[in-house]
Amino acid sequence: MGENTDQSQKNITGFRPPEDFARNAIVNDPDIYGRAEDDPESFWEENANGIEWYRKWDNVLEWEPPLSKWFIGGKLNACYNCLDVNLKQRADKTAIIWEGESGDIRKYTYKELLEEVSSFANVLKGTGVKKGDIVTIYLPMIPEVVIAMLACARIGAPHSVVFAAFSGESLATRIGNANSKVLITCDGYSRRGKVVEQKNKVDEGIRSCGLLDKVIVMKHYGNDVSMTEGRDVWWHEVMKDSESSCEPEVMDSEDMLFLMYTSGTTGKPKGIVHTTGGYMVATHTTTKFVFDLKEDDIYWCTADCGWITGHSYLVYGPLSNGTTLVMYEGAPDYPDKDRYWDIIERHKVTILYTAPTAIRTFMKWGPSWPQMHDISTLRLIGSVGEPINPGAWLWYHENIGLGKCPVVDTWWQTETGMIMISPLPGITTTKPGSATMPMPGIKAAVLDEKGNEVPPGQDGYLAILKPWPSMVRTVFGNEERFIETYWSKWDNKTYFAGDGAKRDEDGYFWIIGRVDDVIKVSGHRIGSAEFESILVSHPSVAEAGVVGKEDELRGEVIYSYVTLKSGVEESDELKSELTSYAAKNIGPFARPKQIIFSDDLPKTRSGKIMRRVLKAIANNKDPGDVTTLQDPAVVENLKEKTRILD
Ligand code: PRX
């Protein structure tokens, strides 16, 4: 991460878009920036015409800081815009090419997908789901996750997709917060050849809370599961006689399309609310512009539908553009380390969108794996989820993009809904490690503590100065937290992204990483406080402070500083027990890298654990002024314990 800084100061020569790429690009007139800046509302209004509306809006934007509404009075349906609109010209075009980890392949044309989605929408209606009811989806990367999401959108039921690798307990928290009565899941799925017993996780997680009325279970892996009479039904059975046409619900532009839980700075995940009109306009437009989507592209976004990237750039953006998309269920190294390149060769993928952590892993495995395959169909490659270091960027460009593909490093967040800072591949000269410039229609800046713009080269906070169509509308059930988290740092109308950044002399943005208590492990967003509350729920733990430590491969890894209850002995067994406990209670992707026992933690005089100090210790950095700590001696002690691990 620090590398970004060095490169920006070296003023590295950029990569111009290849001439033929630029000539044929959907966006190749740099004037787009000026036009959008002069009149962002007209810019978005113009792009809103890319979406089909039952009724057009009366006003583009109503901005009562920090609350915004977009395309007011507009009526539309997101599912209709992903499927029905494509029937005229693309009924028999492949919408989804799905590949299972075992090598199974399923394909759906737009017409077939519409039929499946409509049938499932009728199933949901049959179980009593009505417009406005939140449906939770807990599925791995199988076509049914897309079908379920779109079926919800069709009948106006907001979906809340929970990442399949989360534990049953994490699922239960999210079901409880959303007050969701219907869950869609599966028996199990394959991860590196081993079964993940998804339905068992559900049963364990929701055992005590008894929240759900109905659980619809897709039979995918074939493992044994227990079905609770009256509550659990099989997907294939309820689908058998379901009618395959379903009128889409007419939704207001500001009706909720989905909830997406994400980690923040407090113990509880927050439900980010996205609405229909602005979100559809934003994702439709940015998918087209950033990925330069053309009719015959084969587009592969490797993100999981359990995260925002899977929502915006696997489902809503690509399908509303009538794209053929590839969806892969499994691990990149199963059965071997060339799986991605094999998929690209066989399906003739033209656009790849993946994460820096994956790129760094491929780099570690070496270029011989991609070289085993013909990946020359690729014409554009993208990155998202965490800062990409220039070394990884260059490797990606050279070995995957074969030196000819523009690289789009896209900065955005669950809360922004759409890509906010990114090259436009037909226009922007890219610099490895920089997400380059805000998208047309987006006004971003790097500000200091007081809200003043910092000079080039200086660190500050990334801020968005004007509203945008797919911005988070609220935190579900907690407007106060919404305002406090995103809008209260400065003046109530400037969005605080939670990231540190700097701009260089050319105005390029370099994202440094989170400045709050969010940890990015392999691009997965994990809250320190959420993690700490899991650790302290263990009977041996008195207190815990959890921070991210920079890591070459994963961006960050989790370091947990733990004080044990009196009378509990420190031991390696307890360390591994706590590691498994955290992994079991959150999900395997959240396994702490180190657990460090300590009799005390750095605390303020009022007893608050100072994560800032712990983070500095974990990263071998200067913790700054520690004289205000209850016991400054703790710092030296922890430094020593941490040093032994390095
Ligand atoms: O820290 C930034 C990082 O990911 C955070 C948002 O995480 P999440 O809501 O899970 O969404 C990830 C996918 C959009 C940001 O606050 N981040 C995302 N993209 C980049 C990035 N950091 C640097 N460069 C990026 N391209």
UniProtKB/TrEMBL annotation:
PTM remark: Acetylated. Deacetylation by the SIR2-homolog deacetylase activates the enzyme.
Cofactor(s) named in the record: Mg(2+)
Single GO MF descriptor: 3-hydroxypropionyl-CoA synthetase activity
Residues annotated with N6-acetyllysine modification: 608
Pfam families linked to this entry: ACAS_N, AMP-binding, AMP-binding_C
Residues noted as binding CoA in the record, renumbered to the chain: 191-194, 309, 522
Record: residues binding Mg(2+): 536, 538, 541
Chemical reaction(s) catalysed: acetate + ATP + CoA = acetyl-CoA + AMP + diphosphate
All copies of domain Acetyl-coenzyme A synthetase N-terminal, residue ranges: 31-82
GO BP annotations listed: acetyl-CoA biosynthetic process from acetate; carbon fixation by 3-hydroxypropionate cycle
Domain AMP-dependent synthetase/ligase positions: 86-467
EC code: 6.2.1.1
PROSITE patterns per record: AMP_BINDING
Residues binding ATP: 385-387, 409-414, 499, 514, 525
Keywords: Acetylation, ATP-binding, Ligase, Magnesium, Metal-binding, Nucleotide-binding
InterPro entries (UniProt xref): Ac_CoA_lig, ACAS_N, AMP-bd_C, AMP-bd_C_sf, AMP-binding_CS, AMP-dep_synth/lig_dom, ANL_N_sf
Ranges where the AMP-binding enzyme C-terminal domain occurs: 530-608
Gene3D superfamilies: 3.30.300.30, N-terminal domain of ligase-like
Biological role: Catalyzes the conversion of acetate into acetyl-CoA (AcCoA), an essential intermediate at the junction of anabolic and catabolic pathways. AcsA undergoes a two-step reaction. In the first half reaction, AcsA combines acetate with ATP to form acetyl-adenylate (AcAMP) intermediate. In the second half reaction, it can then transfer the acetyl group from AcAMP to the sulfhydryl group of CoA, forming the product AcCoA.
Family named by the database record: Belongs to the ATP-dependent AMP-binding enzyme family.
Protein name: Acetyl-coenzyme A synthetase
Source organism: Methanolobus mangrovi
Chain's gene name: acs
